[in-house]
Automatic annotation (TrEMBL):
Entries under NCBIfam families matching the protein: panC
Enzyme class: ligase
A single MF term (Gene Ontology): pantoate-beta-alanine ligase activity
An individual GO BP term: pantothenate biosynthetic process
Annotated organism of origin: freshwater metagenome
GO cellular component, one term: cytosol
Protein's name in the database: pantoate--beta-alanine ligase (AMP-forming)
Pathway this chain belongs to: Cofactor biosynthesis; (R)-pantothenate biosynthesis; (R)-pantothenate from (R)-pantoate and beta-alanine: step 1/1
EC number: 6.3.2.1
Keyword check for Cell membrane: no
Amino acid sequence: MQVLSTKSEFREHLETVRALGRTVGLVPTMGALHEGHLSLLRAAANDCDVVALTIFVNPLQFGAGEDLDAYPRPLEHDLELAEAAGADVVFTPTTSEMYPEPTLTNVHVDRLTSSMEGASRPTHFDGVSTVVTKLFNIAGPCRAYFGEKDFQQLAVVRRMAADLDQSVEIVGCPIVRETDGLAMSSRNVYLSSTEREAATVINRALRAGAAMIEAGESDPSVIEAHMASIINAEPLAALDYAVVVDPESLLTPDRLASGTTVRLLMVAQVGTPRLLDNLGVDVP
């Protein structure tokens, strides 16, 4: 496994790979790898000839007062995990390598970024779209793998790639969970043992919302209120939002139509971290 730290090295390496007729699977991450990330690497290895992992804690997607400085950066451990999961090359740039001058150009995706995470973190998605566009431009034609845990981010990246005719196929991969249902996240390390137990309420609330839909409830506001009530009953959890949305537009329908699919999305703060989770549900 090769570890490259400059844009030119990474670009030239993948250009050489493609010149030999080999396909590239790109897995962009901020490091602090867990089983969710490793599942993306394994999916890329299954589909593509060469797996390229990027590890970069992107300052543009952190707002004022967020956890940029505290974000975990266990690089050596990440590299060990990455190699075992099938990574062939890892791009580990510094901030000055990615942004040698102050950034005057940002990539903004309209509509999909105005609600949920976009409302709670107004600069977040411009930071994500900008760094992902840079990574796509550096990596060149490839398949790029993203987890469904950050479902709004996945929708934003998909729309961005389509709108800008980027030479990248976006592949969404299922959420990987702990045995008790908690979605795996790099920020779970911030949880105390008590908070870790309390955090399972998020998945329980999502499953309760799904059960309502499967039982015939078609009013999104009723489902959202029920999910919120479950979170609010947990003293250590503070609800940010609980919504029922169309998986493409991310808008909440007036009623749930039979035969469609909706996505239940939720964020709650437990202790220090804000924890995201979501669940897809087929409407009977």
